[in-house]
Amino acid sequence: MRTCLDISSETKRGNVATRATNYIPMKFILGTKLNMTQLFDDNGTIIPVTVVKAGPVTVTKVKTVGSDGYSAVQVGFGEQKESRLSKAVLGVFAGKGYKTVSEFRTEAPAVAAGDVIDASAFAAGDVVTITGTSKAKGFQGVVKRYGFAGGPRTHGQKHSEREPGSIGGGLRTHVPKGMRMAGRTGGETITVKNLSVVAVDAEKGELYIGGAVPGRRGTLLKIVA
Fold it and tell me: Which of 15, 50, 77, 126 qualifies as a cystine partner to 30, CB 3.0-4.6 A?
């Protein structure tokens, strides 16, 4: 799918220099990954983007140093049936059920409990950090997991094309920690920094993020700017 939105060439890349090491996020939201597509800027350049359904999220609690020992904003995302939640959880969230509840550490938040945050909080050109769970690929061998070349294809080696080879002849008693071998692949928490918001569709509640983000379609994403 190709989409044409009114975007300028200056929004294609985020300004990495503006992100200090002690950066405190002031914009934050939860969303789900929809799909990848491409946009065109005013020069006709194709920009690969990931479409993210961002929010809306509801602020469920504002935590402070005095009451909780740290500053953070707790938000709820998605709807959950009341029958699937305990009375204690419903009591905490005033009878509303959320599929996901998450926190964002921030100093002096300009929000209060009950406020709703949606995609309109972001703008084209924002530099964001996105955290999600990568695609789970199950148990895989070293060729797919680490890109090993495998064994030779000739000289009687017909059964070792995808084998890892020797892991060290003098080890004998144990396998060293960190040895690259076959095992479970993917399904890990991945954080990608310095991604740029190429365009925002506030009406649909969608963010167009330049490049790829972790996970499959429907993966929950944590977005801060």
Answer: 77
The H or E element spanning position 144 is: helix 142-146
Say which residues have a Cβ less than 8 Å from residue 4's Cβ, sequence separation at least 6: 39, 40
**Closest to 19 (Cα-Cα) out of 217, 184, 196:** 196
What is the spatial distance between Cα 1 and Cα 127, in angstroms, rounded to a whole number? Answer: 24
Q: Which residues contact 154 (CB under 8 A, 6 or more apart)?
A: none
Burial class (CB in 10 A: 0-12, 13-18, 19+), 156: exposed
Output DSSP code: residue 158: T
CA nearest neighbour of 141 among 133, 129, 149: 149
CATH architecture label of 9-137+189-224: Beta Barrel (2.40)
Q: Looking at this protein, which amino acid is placed at residue 1?
A: M
Q: Kindly report the length of the chain.
A: 225
Torsion angle, CA of 213/216/222/225, rounded to 10 degrees? 20
- Please classify residue 149 by burial: count the beta carbons closer than 10 Å to its beta carbon, then call 0-12 exposed, 13-18 middle and 19+ buried: exposed
Measured in whole angstroms, the distance separating CA 36 from the mean position of its chain's CA atoms is 14
Model pLDDT for residues 101-130, shown as the tens digit of each residue: 888 888 777 788 888 888 888 998 899 999
The residue ranges of every structural domain in the chain are 9-137+189-224, 140-185
Token code pair at residue 115: 């406020």
Structure tokens at 65: 């140093």
- Cis before 214? omega within 30: no
Percent of the chain at pLDDT > 90 equals 35
